[in-house]
Amino acid sequence: MTLRKISTIFILLFSSFAFSQNLFGVSGSYSNQSGNFAKLGLFYTFGLGDTFITPRIDANANMAYMRDNFHVIPEIGITGYFTSGGSYIFPFVESEFTPYTITPKVGLTFLTIVEFGIGYGFKINEKDNFKPIKGFQFSAGINIPFNWN
Asked: Keywords in UniProt for this one (predicted)?
């Protein structure tokens, strides 16, 4: 399944939530998985704290300079925050999908603004002129919401 098809499915599945906006904004992060990546993207969080598991979707551009070339790899992520009343730090689970890997992750977040995660990437395809993207991943990121309540 191509990233375009995956993106279309996510847009169709989550479009019914478009009018109940809660948190949306930009994100930036660093990840290390077979190399160093800088990530920039947009996120949308559905009703933070309304239920035990709060869903979030995000679209990112993974940027890396490898083998004398600059590469940009698109990514779609689905996150579930396990929120609890009165807590500022809570765990999350996430799955990241690129045209080359599927990476399930777990981690901790502070108010969904600062995140630290670890995971393992499973190779589904190889990018030309790029080393295989697979194996353990570590990430640290910041999410800046545009509409913080």
From this structure: Signal
Percent helix, strand and coil across the chain, each to the nearest 5? 10, 60, 30
pTM: 0.79
Structure token pair of residue 126: 């190889």
24-143: CATH, from 3.90.230.10, 3.40.47.10, 2.40.160.20, 2.40.50.360:
2.40.160.20
The pLDDT tens digits of the residues spanning 10-48 come to 555 554 444 444 789 999 999 998 889 999 999 998 877
Nearest CA to 124 out of 75, 66, 68, 59 is that of: 75
DSSP class of 6: H
Closest CA to 101 of 121, 130, 74, 80: 121
| Tokens encoding 88 | 């500022």
Q: Are 139 and 120 in contact (CB under 8 A)?
A: no
Largest CA distance in the chain: 49
What are the structural domain ranges in the chain? 24-143
Gap between the Cα atoms of 126 and 131, Å rounded: 8
Q: What is the pLDDT of residues 67-77, one digit of tens each?
A: 788 999 999 99
